[in-house]
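Q: Okay, next protein. This is L,D-transpeptidase family protein from Chelativorans composti. I've checked the sequence twice, so it should be correct. Can you predict the 3D structure?
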Amino acid sequence: MKNRIARAFVIGVALAVLAGCSGGGLEDIAPTSKKALRPLPQKIVTQMNAKGMKKSSPILMRIFKEENVLEVWKQKTNGKFDLIASYEICKWSGELGPKYIEGDRQAPEGFYTVTPAQMNPNSLYHLSFNLGYPNAYDRANGRTGSHLMVHGDCSSAGCYSMTDEQMEQIWAFARDAFEGGQTAFQVQAFPFRMTPENMARYKDDPNFEFWKMLKVGYDMFEITKQPPKVDVCEAKYQFNQIAAPGYSFNPAGPCPPMSLPESLAVQYAKHKAEQDKAFSRAVQLAWLTNKPRSETILGIEEARLVADWTRRRARGEKVASRPPSLPSPTAVASAKPAQTQQKDVAAVASAVPAPAAETPATSLPATAFVATLRKSETAPSAGAMPDFPAAAPDAAAAASPSVAVAVPTPDPRNQGGQEVAAAAEPKAQRRTLGALFSRIMGN
């Protein structure tokens, strides 16, 4: 079996004639050059041995545009993949987002498969391999283009370009894996590391829905540390889905009845719930920290009023059915900045609930506390990402009288029955609004 694959690899590279990103003409087929035969540096071989990796074990590559990184992952003896090498991309073409049409000079994003036939040891760009764009997803969505490569020579017109030294190592990883029996390796190309925080930063980008789809495959790999099985139906990526007996995947046709393996479904559901929570928190925190100063003060003032209202309600005092309204924006904006900010930060800091994990069951979660800001000031929900829940705007107002938020202990010296905010220590008074909002969000 290994001999047949090795022969296929030799035949494939002998037939490879694509010159690189520009498709700058065909080359004479020459014997495989020394640059394509150079072994990996001994330092990398030592690292592989330490991680339980064989020289000929399968590989996977991940590309991140924003971070400017190409990663090589290699399979360990336990079957899982681990990162073995990371290279700074010398140049990549275009901007964040997928490739759409021939000539847009855009480096592609998505899940691609590289076989021995796509390897070119005689490339005009030192060494190269074709990503396989357009793949089934790209074709189902009418996307066009050709000669999209990872190559050397540090020049790009729609490709991912490396230095020649880097490309020799990347090539060696692929060559050794093919010689070891791997028939194809997966390349995952992303706009950025698909963390909840990064997804929140780009939630208004036109490519957001496409990136949400890629994130499913990204998360599958993060969970399993194995390349996800990739299919396409209804012109959408499907990851690790198993079609029902008698059905198959048609890239342009309707999706068949399908499901995830049970153990993976459980792991993914748990992982997604954590990611959803982190995404909502990141969206709301970004909204708070990016607001103009006058609006931020309004938010702090309302938080103080709401905290006071909930304390009085919890004591059984007669209060309005809803929290009091804010002072006028004009009044807040005209307040003395240092005086207003210092006073309100100290007041709110004393009333902010503890993080959800440490808050008593009878208290309102911190996310609901933040969501009590008036509707015109309410942090944006995760509407652009419908699977990600966000706190209800009126969570605190809708709470029954028996449910109270965590409140500071009343000052026993207050004989008049009216609570006073505990004097903040000088250090606490100097806390930044960012730190305060982190407490509000439960961090």
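A: Here is a summary of the prediction. Residues 17 and 26 are 6 Å apart (CA to CA). The two ends are 54 Å apart (CA to CA).
Q: Noted. On to the next one.
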